[in-house]
Design goal:
Blueprint lengths: L2 H9 L4 E7 L4 H9 L4 E5 L8 E6 L2 E7 H8 L13 H10 L5 E4 L1 H18 L3 E5 L3 H5 L2 H10 L3 E5 L14 E3 L9 E6 L9 E8 L2 E7 L2 H12 L1
Parallel strand pairs: 1-2, 6-7, 7-8
Antiparallel strand pairs: 1-3, 3-4, 5-11, 6-9, 9-10, 10-11
């Protein structure tokens, strides 16, 4: 089993419990969790009670709570270039932090891209450190050239892009970006790992494996897990 396979298998054994407190019918939020393979308990709120919200517990302890404002980002995941997220960063960051290390199934590329932008934005705001990414194909990376041009030119990040041909003349030739060929061990994964420049509180990552019906994966702000994602990409 490869490093990335092992990471995803480990994540699937974690004890995560999500409870949806709702008024009326389940609605779109409950449907989103259902379609992403999340085992969720539902509890009713009185008609004069608060708006719907979810409570996340991890390993028997409270991990976070999210209201409708934050949960709305699940339904329409934001795709905003790193450094330009001031209008929505607080709400999406809360979502990212509360649901980290939760495995979702059938994730779409748009959802993965939204999580990727959150990680890239945290790297951008830190300005230093190592960011490793793998988007499976050069074509998938081509769609993100503007974002990575900004990351490379506006910061002193050390950026490594995997699963591309280093000799591809269409790639950005910018100091700070190094390209690496892929391989069977990583080309089936969409993955990012930012080391926080040595600050465990800033480290974050994403790992998702392509399946027939989308992607199965998780995001994390656990520094040790981020280090393992980085090692899996680096080979």
């Amino acid at each position: 089993m490869t490093t990335l396979e092992s990471l995803l298998a480990d994540a699937q054994t974690r004890n995560v419990r999500i409870t949806l407190y709702q008024r009326g019918e389940t609605g779109s939020i409950g449907g989103w969790f259902d379609s992403r393979g999340v085992d969720m308990e539902r509890r009713s709120l009185p008609d004069n009670g608060p708006e719907s919200f979810v409570v996340i517990e991890r390993d028997g302890g409270f991990a976070g709570a999210l209201g409708t404002a934050e949960l709305s980002w699940l339904l329409e995941p934001p795709i905003v270039r790193p450094g330009d997220r001031n209008g929505m960063s607080a709400g999406y960051s809360a979502l990212f932090d509360a649901l980290d290390d939760t495995v979702f199934t059938a994730m779409t590329r748009r959802e993965l891209l939204a999580v990727s932008r959150e990680i890239e934005d945290r790297a951008y705001r830190t300005g230093t450190g190592v960011l490793r990414v793998g988007f499976q194909t050069a074509a998938a990376f081509d769609a993100q050239l503007d974002a990575y041009r900004a990351l490379a030119t506006d910061t002193t990040l050390e950026i490594h892009v995997h699963s591309v041909d280093p000799d591809d003349g269409a790639l950005l030739d910018i100091e700070g970006i190094t390209y690496h060929e892929g391989g069977d061990a990583i080309d089936q994964y969409w993955a990012l790992a930012f080391d926080g420049d040595g600050d465990d509180g800033r480290a974050c990552g994403l790992l998702a494996q392509e399946r027939t019906a989308g992607y199965d994966g998780f995001w994390t702000d656990d520094a040790a897990t981020v280090e393992r994602i980085s090692a899996g990409l680096a080979g």
